[in-house]
Amino acid sequence: MKLLLIAEYKNKKFLESNYELIAFADKLNADYVMFGVGGGSDLPKCDGKFYLADSEKAGEYNPSLHKKLIAEVMEKEKADFIVLSHTSYGWDLAPRLSAELTLPQVSEVVDVSGNNFILPACNGKLWRKVSTDGKGIITIQGGAFNPESDYEGTPEVINIEVPSVETKVRFEGYEKAEAVGVDLTKAEIIVSAGRGVGKKENVENVRKLAEALGGELGASRPVVDSEWVEHSHQVGTTGQTVAPKLYVACGISGAIQHLAGMKKSDFILAVNTDKDAPIAEVADVLVVSDVNQFAPALADKISSK
Amino acid sequence: MKILVCVKQVPDMESKFKLDKENKWFSEEDLAFRMNEYDEYAVEQAVQLKEQTGDAEVVVVSLGPDRAKEAVKKALAMGCDRAIHIKDDDYYKKDSYSVAKNIYEYVKDENFDIVFTGLQSQDRGSAQVGVILAEFLDYPCVTTIIEFEYNNGEIQVKRELEGGEKAIVKVKAPVILTCQLGLNTPRYPTLPNIMKAKKKEIKAAEPVDTENLLTFTDIDYPEKKGAAEILEGDVKELVDKTMEILKQKTSVLK
Amino acid sequence: MEFSRQIYWNVGHVVLIPMYLLAFIAIGIMIYGFYKRYLVYKTAGSENRMDSLSERIFYMLRNVFSQKKVIKEKIPGIFHGIFFWGFLLLFIGTVLVLLQADFTNPLFGIKFLTGTFYLVFSLVLDLAGLAAIVMLSALLIRRFFIKPEGLETIRDDYIIHGILLVILITGFVIEGLRISVTELGSGSILPFFSPVGMFVANIFTGFDAGNLQSAHKFIWWFHFLLAMTFIGIIPFTKLRHIFTTSANLMFRDNRLKGFINTPDLEDEEAEQFGCEKLTDFTWKDIFDGDACTKCKRCQDRCPAYATDKPLSPMKVIQQFQEAAFYANTENMVDFVTSDVLWSCTTCRACQETCPADIEHVNKILEMRRNLVLMKGEFPGDEVVTAADSLEVNGNPLGFGFAKRGDWAEGLDVSLMSEQADVDILYFPGCFASFDKRNITVAKNFISICNELGLKVGILGKEEKCCGEPARKLGNEYLYQMTAMENIEKFSDYNVKKIVTTCPHCFNTLSKDYRELGLEQSVEVEHYTTFLYKMFEEKDIDLESDGFECTYHDSCYMARYNDILDEPRALIESAGGRINEMDKNRCESFCCGGGGGRILVDEKIGTKVNATRAKMAADTGSGTLISNCPFCLSMFEDGIKTAELEDKIKVKDLSEIIVDKIKRRS
After folding, report:
1. pLDDT in tens, B138-187
2. Best label site of A264, B11, B126, C43, fewest CB within 10 Å?
3. Do C374 and B195 touch (CB under 8 A)?
4. ipTM
């Protein structure tokens, strides 16, 4: 099997997540070549071909142009599957490739089983198995396929010419997220509040537990959208991706986007009244309790020691 | 100006899901249905744009079984003008490519200026239909918009990227935009609008024969990998047990 | 000596014509004033408050003459009562004088103001007048010097106190002058039957009779003109309450307590839902403003006002009067403001205490309907989420509908879909079905029913929210939708009797649902009255080892449904010694959860639930008993907020009973 891996490049850097694409190829025991629109230095460490288009010419976001360039590479390489990360870059580009090449797209793969790809459905409450005729476009879920160890190597760079095309979609630049008050990626202990806390004032219960444990406060997306906690505390694909020693999920059901942001934590303690909540998938321990009763009680016990 | 919104009716995510007899999809037993959350933002943005320009028609299209009419009616109550309901009991057997093809059949002659769809559906989460539809219509497309501005034909949107960063993108109509949660605050339909919606046109349409590109093998409950240890009891017991576990399994309490 | 006096002494019969002329003019002005107000009442919608007219009239007369509602609040109620009776007697006295002087005497030669009757007549009137002056003076001191908190004093108050005092005092001066000249010093006992008059008369001893007579004439005219002025200004000042407040008793809402209109939402012609402009309301809503004397009893009892919310029920009523007659404003919703409107818990303390039978609550509810149904405006995003959840899953708490009957797993209770032949249908409601603390109540109730040998059925996942919080938050559409679904299910299973552990479900099912088609033959009861009857019927005794407690009367039990004694009887038979709070029974202070507010974040002022929790803790009894899921949830929170966990615990009545009944068997 041969894969064409599409590397992601943002803010003039190739992303770490590109190694997950290689890990995916390894899982399938497949050969691969890579493609990326970016700058010449700090290419992902790997062996094999890397088709590089200059991002100065092609732009970091220019989906119709990127699609054309990839289609050209496909013509040359005739890979079985094109693989992207299921990110804002990947899900914007993959369906275009699907339509252009009339190939099925398999979105957000979390695992492989024989010829089947496994996809989450209904917020992770169910898993679907799908298959193709051997060719397709795949997007992989962030954190689903992890490299066993660091990759070494230097790719063989093949420069692609970027035609000057008129583009209908003009990328005007990035807007940074608000000044991050808290860098959760550095925290060793994170205690997060989810919708299960009920109301804004109850976030205090979670905050106190975080304090008692000497950790930082995190939050799920709905809690940030409701303005109970500032955005800088958001954990998840559109917030921060963290891997602390201890992650305590309070009243968080476990939406995929949140799980993707914290499931690599060393030890996950979930507090939820629903023992079937999807968070149980990744948690080491699930305490079946109302967070507003449990969190203060635990905080008290810890503080009194 | 002509605006199109694509909506899908999905089960409420709080539901207890069961598998259907053939394990091909979830059973409808004990499910409550609602409009896909992402689509609510799409409908709201379309209606806001109509209010801004003062002279626009908003059409809502949906592919789904008979019950999907409820989601269509909600979109009409929020302010869409008319609807196309592609009535299909086998909707769940169609892959995103086929769904996009169906929608394309019914909208290709209408020359829409702007199309809003949700980023993805809550049940399948493929995030493909909007973009594939753009390819069929040969419209530019921008996904996962979190902000939208329209000024005399100039459209500026912001895409929500990972880590809270945003990308500023400018584009002109005709265009397709897929909407992320938080784009706006979807309005609660007023009663007069709910009543007016009852009189708005919902054109029934037959699904188009299409071939899937993707094969659906089956659906099942997730494998419990390393199942979580479940602790139950009264709060005091739970606190004590948790303290023990934290001491043993982590270096947190020493 | 004959016991009587010469009417028109000193002033002479020559006063007759100008007197009647002026009276005619004064009354004409009064009628004209009321007519102008009537024209304004008419601009709003119609409402029939004339049904059972004789009943209404007797109700009004009974209450006006007994002053029953007024004197309920001892100060200043009894003062006003005595003042009223005094003034009434003086008025009757004047009418009797007029009757004799201008009719029975000149036409038939009959004089009845003679003999013993006249002595009694004189004495009673003098004492009445004295009482009136003393009471009025006390009320004056209260209003202008003590200045109770929240009492608003306006221009009208100055005028009324002034004119009445002067009329009363000049009345005695006239009497004193007459007695001084005609009765003193003649050895007659007459003066003693006009003690105040005699006192005044003694002041004038030694004065020249001619001067006294001139003074008498002058003050007689002055007194008369003041009286006529009094009559003329009635409709233009707060004095109008003499008529409007009395009439408001006649126009009162004689429907079941808590009745609110059920609009036909299928009506395709309807364009307006709820009320926004003054003219969307009815004439009665404007008239309520005129009937209000700003006594502030409603404000004093409002839980929102007591916790620094911007709502004052008195102010809302006054704003209706203001909008109708003074302010250049039509839009009541903007005038009252949404913060005020959303603060109400519909506890009905205002209406329960109002001596004028003014209707505060439905005005607020109609404006809430306007906000929600016409504008899609809610008090907060959390309410939109709750409404959404109610629509999709039949409960405002965000749980999947299929889990609704899960609490009953393993219990001896059947699902109606499997076994509809039951003694009662138990309707737990949303909180008892999903909220951990309240599921205990549901389980307890089933336990108790099992002990009683009753067959209980539940709808389980076929049950939907009764719709009450949606209705009270203005979402009439959502309420009717969910209510109809429940009514259909009751009909499908041929339900005959429903028992619920929630007073809100109880009030809604037993009263509101009838308007949507629930047959009167379907009995609905709250579990406290149901168990009270069952225990009597089955001769059940409860194990009663004594314990101290206090009992909170939920608003929807006490004020909406007058259920006060059965819960107390149950507690007492279980051995509880109830240390009543000051505010108990129909004076109970709301927990803060009514009016749909159990679903709303409390953002303004202090917490209602903490305030009531403190009242409970202050009884020193250690245990607070209630029988409403909202009260139970609110008190659990309130006790924590007020940091009273060591002083008081809250229990549902079912938790008290289930222990005792188990021990018995």
Report:
1. 999 999 999 999 998 899 999 999 878 999 999 999 999 999 999 999 99
2. C43
3. no
4. 0.90
